[in-house]
Amino acid sequence: MGFPWAILSCASTVYAAGAGTCCSRLSEELGTKVSFLSQPAYNGTESSYWSLQEAGLKPGCILHPSTPKDVSQAVSIIAATDGCNMAVKGQGHAPGAGFANIDGGVTIDMAGLNTTVLSPDRSVLGVGAGAAWLQVYQYLDPYNVSVAGGRNGLVGVGGLTLGGGISHFSPRVGWACDNVVNFEVVLADGTLANANQNSHSDLYRALKGGANNFGLVTRFDLETFPQGDISVSTFVNNVSKRGPVLSAFTDIISSPKFDVSVSLLVSFLYNSKSKAWTISNSAVYTQPVLHPPVFDQLAAVPSISNTSRITSVASLADEAPTSPLNWLFATAAFKPSAEFMLETFEILNNILYSFNPQGGVVWDIAFEPLPSVMLSHAAKTGGNVLGLQSDEGNSYIMLISALWLDSASNTAVEEVSREVLSVIESRAKAEGLLRKFQYINYAAPYQAPLASYGAENFEFLKRVSRKYDPQAFFQHRVPGGFKLVEQSQQELGVSNEEN
Questions:
Q1: Least C-beta-crowded within 10 Å: which of 26, 124, 250, 468?
Q2: Hey, what's the signal peptide range on this chain (predicted)?
């Protein structure tokens, strides 16, 4: 029984030595842009993560680049140093441990690459990959234009866009990635390239949903559109009103003439300490129309509170940061059915009600539209790899979130989330309501969102990876996130089980 441990010990020693050499070389080339344990810049990055799981990892050093050239140099050095792995952090909003940080390797904190530049005709915004969406909206609002970006302003531009990206404006203009006209990207050999419809068009398409499997994006050039103030209504309901709330939600998302100004989020919140459920609805209308008729049915449901206002995009996105907690995401997509949504609540209540780990846990189960009109915009920039077709009809996405303080409960919370998701998906599949698609920005580490894009898109992603990264640097040396090689193995496992 000692043999595997000996291998692990040996591997750890080699890995640590490689990382130390790598950090030394980075420091020689990039000077004070490299920080080490206990230095202020290092501590600043470590304290900026959204989840405790990410903040708990300790890289050997952290690089704080200020130019794309810095990133290019760093990737070249890391790739040339055996035993040195890296992670890439934008705003650090992914909850999974290792998605944007690393133990013992090099974390590249992209926050310094946050420049926003609007073209003279205001049609394209160039934005550094380390920017947060709030910075983008604050920059654009005075020009009365906007871009398809994150709804929470604290989310980073890079992670959201490379995962597809749902925006308040998505029904009108598509996924965030559908509005990228050019990616500036550092490849595995350190080359700085531009990927667009005319140059590296295959890489351009792969980056639209393919996450961090192909290169390190340093700048996104985003198509803008005219935009002024918007309307937002917030309704809070007693859980006893779940029937009419879910009926109103289903009627809105099922409409064959889905209103492209609608951005709707219906959330069921559960606190394991109080064993209490609450329904919170965020009904955004991306025009300055107070009380738009499309939300009348939802607004008519008796509520605990009901507020509406006209506001700017930046003001709406300016959310208060949460205290550092442990977080978990998991997701699935379904065809519309109010009856099935009620079944979903019963499943959630039956499983979650008796689960109360030390320190408690808060669950947030959110539902949001995935209308076919949103999917129709992909073709305008050469398509994406998400595998969704507009002729498949309207759907909705479910996000299961959990947040808790006591890290000793991490495994237990994950196990419960797996159980909940498994039961809901099994029931949906039996009723013909389950969609294969898993939104990668909401997916749990145990899910396989890249494979959910379909066999054709998945094979395309693997071909592009082999072409631009023949040594599989971003598959093996950038281990965080969802990797094509790992999901290939998962698919093989599923195939073997079926046979």
A1: 124
A2: 1-16
172 has pLDDT over 60: yes
Alpha-carbon distance 383 to 377, whole Å? 8
106-109 and 86-89: which strand pairing? parallel
Q: pLDDT at position 17, please?
A: 55
| Residue 118: CA count within 13 A, CB half-sphere | 18
Helix, strand, or coil (residue 276): strand
d(CA 267, CA 400): 10
**Residue 454 to residue 438: CA distance in whole angstroms:** 11
Residue 407 is given by DSSP the state G
Q: What is the mean pLDDT of residues 12-28?
A: 73
Please give the Cα distance from 435 to 395 (Å, whole number): 8
At residue 497, the 3 state secondary structure works out as: helix
Which domains occur in the chain, in start order? 2-110 (3.30.465.10), 116-226 (3.30.465.10), 230-311+322-437 (3.40.462.20), 452-498 (no CATH)
Query: Phi and psi dihedrals of 373, rounded to 5?
Result: -65, -30
Task: Give Cα 93 distance to the centre of its chain.
Answer: 8
Query: Which residues does 225 contact at the CB level (< 8 Å), separation at least 6?
Result: 145, 146, 147, 169, 172, 173
The model's pLDDT over 77-90, given as tens digits with 9 standing for 90+, comes to 999 999 999 999 99
Helix, strand, coil % (nearest 5) of the chain? Answer: 40, 25, 35
Question: Helix (H, G, I), strand (E, B), or coil: what is residue 456?
Answer: helix
